[in-house]
Amino acid sequence: MAGEGERYHEFEPPPSLRGFVRKIWTYADPDPAPVVQRIAPDGCPELILDIGSPYEELDDDGVWRLQPSAIFAGQMTRPLALRPAGPTELVAVRFEPYGARDWLGVSVDRATDRRLDMTDRLAGLTAPAGDPEAQVAAFVAFLEAQKAKQGWSLDPLVRAEVEAASDDRPSPDRSPSEQRALQRRFADQVGVSPRMLRSIFRFRRVFDHAAQPGQIADGWLEAGLEAGYFDQPQLARDFRRFLGCTATEWAREQQALAKAIASETYKPTGPHPA
In the β-sheet with 70-73, what is the strand arrangement from edge to edge? Predict the structure, then answer.
């Protein structure tokens, strides 16, 4: 739940962008707590425009660095640590797992576990501060123009495999050569392997099943079992793998953006359809 002065909203994409875009979301906090936020993988790349102060990101060398004001955040296979550097406000496009390839213009695996600087690419995009609906409208117009110019398309085989993984349905039997071809198409269009995407989706389902995501509760194990985990140690390993901490540590420490994303995005449907 957003705190006083803090807001988080999700909007459905228009029909023209469905299949490529899953959600468009906005977030703002005029007085964010100066704490580290752990962001887990969710299986979807994102395009993010900071209207307020950009976040600082913890790099692999242990140094905090300011993110660019516009970034393409590729698929994640490990946790992301962020902290606010001032009043925050942003608008973001959450693509479908397979939906960003044509917009990006290169193989999506080039952005896996990376945040690419999109400042020049989004230089003409104006998103007014304090107006989520206008911010979303500006992004929709921008993406619709890009789609018309670039002629976006989707790979039906990749899409079907992603949907099977999302629904926790088994993949069809494939020959070794067919499986290798699917792996190559996934690397190009999704950015991670089918097996990794299934692991990420299973971890997301923990939050779908948790009665109160982000709260310290005995429900984590039950939620994990409902999500498809065999036991507590297996669930604990994925918390370390995807969030870098235990479930109890994450619930106790996280707030602001990380908790808003978990409590809203991990629900089966968004709370604020446009």
Answer: 7-11, 21-29, 88-95, 46-50, 70-73, 115-117
